[in-house]
Design a protein that fits this description.
With 376 residues, the chain is mainly beta. 8% of the residues lie in helices and 38% in strands. The longest helix is centred in the first third of the chain and has 27 residues. The protein is globular, with a radius of gyration of 28 Å.
């Protein structure tokens, strides 16, 4: 008798449970119509910053650029012996500032760490240490955000009246930034002409965009919009372009060699360092190149003439590249590699002595250069 009374109750509870299950399914909606609750959030790039390396008044960043605008996190550690902080400026600029309005970590003693996350739009952002005198002494730098190509220009290399560019051309028209550093002993500036050349690199003056005059060790950046064509660049100091401090840069085309200036062959600033001689017994050789702060370690420094494959690895903590000086049309310029990156560059070398350098601004002045000998 009691069992019979329980049946309606159980039936009612069963119906209620089914109704509840149906309501939960409807409320949740189709799986394809809602994002999963466990879906991963968008990845925020992380830049590891070491203060006090490679010298007490310097920063080392794990990356000097990020590919897209948006949030970025800086993980900052002080490896120096004195207190430092890290400030990222709020507005794009590359004027070699010693102070700015930005976001700053707490002051960090040796071994301490801190993080800061900011949202950056496209552009070049300066960073620095706010301790009095530290930025003025060189504890600062520039972070590249988004897709504007950046060309690293070294004035005063490979000779005092030469320019060296990190690449001789860019593949598409549009905005491009020239980040210029003077490692020469006398003042230089850098002008990129506004219109494509009609003189194939023989102009000594033009209408264009020019950096401020730079003394030894100073840097400046200019950003211009260039359409398809070959553009001349030069130093405006009286007599210096005439002496060879000029060259050509290609936009969506290959630059033509400049017979008159040391900046020819795509503006690598390269007068040849090769003792020209024929290669009587060409062979193929593979050479390993390890890029470190601030030196190259090669598997061999004497190489048979012919095809040489340079397998490059950035074993350091900051951006580097590998450049064999003096090859036409930028054939000796290896790609810029972030820490841990690798690439291969193949060159045809004839007998002689070749200089090797890193094209990142100031790295040559810090000792990142050397030479190789090609035998025949």
């Amino acid at each position: 008798m009691h069992r019979l009374r329980l049946i309606p109750v159980l039936a009612t509870l069963g119906a209620a449970g089914a109704l509840l299950s149906w309501w939960l399914i409807v409320a949740a909606g189709p799986a394809s119509g809602r994002p999963a609750a466990t879906a991963a959030a968008a990845t925020v790039p992380v830049i590891h910053v070491t203060a006090g390396k490679p010298s007490e008044l310097a920063f080392t960043l794990s990356n000097s650029s990020i590919p897209a605008a948006g949030k970025v996190t800086f993980e900052v550690t002080n490896a120096g012996t004195i207190a430092h902080d890290f400030e990222i400026c709020s507005a794009p600029s590359a004027n070699n500032a010693n102070a700015c309005k930005g976001t700053t970590t707490p002051m960090l003693s040796h071994g301490q760490s801190a993080s800061l996350t900011v949202t950056l739009k496209k552009g070049l952002y300066e960073y620095l240490c706010t301790v009095t005198g530290h930025a003025q002494a060189g504890m600062k730098g520039v972070l590249e955000v988004a897709s504007t190509p950046v060309i690293h220009v070294t004035a005063g290399r490979p000779t005092e009246l030469g320019f060296r560019l990190s690449t001789p051309s860019i593949p598409v028209a549009g905005k491009v930034t020239f980040n210029v550093t003077n490692v020469g002993t006398s003042p230089h500036d850098f002008e990129i002409c506004s219109a494509p050349t009609t003189t194939n690199g023989s102009a000594f003056t033009c209408k264009g965009t020019t950096t401020p005059m730079l003394k030894h060790g100073q840097s400046a950046s200019i950003t211009v919009t260039l359409r398809k064509g070959v553009y001349e660049f030069l130093c405006t100091v009286a007599g210096q372009a005439q002496a060879g401090m000029r060259g050509v840069f290609g936009v969506a085309v290959s630059p033509k060699a400049n017979a008159g200036g040391t900046g020819g062959a795509g503006g690598n600033g390269s007068t040849t360092t090769v003792a020209a001689a024929p290669c009587n017994n060409p062979s193929t050789t593979t050479v390993s190149v390890n890029e470190l702060e601030y030196k190259f370690v090669l598997s061999q420094y004497t190489i048979p003439c012919g095809k040489v494959i340079f397998n490059q690895t950035n074993g350091g903590q900051i951006e580097h590249n590998f450049d064999v000086v003096g090859l036409a049309n930028g054939a000796g310029v290896g790609p810029f590699l972030q820490p841990g990156g690798s690439a291969s560059t193949t060159m045809n070398l004839t007998p002689g002595s070749y200089g090797i350098i890193c094209d990142v601004a100031t790295h040559v002045s810090l000792g990142m250069s050397g030479s190789i000998t090609v035998t025949g």
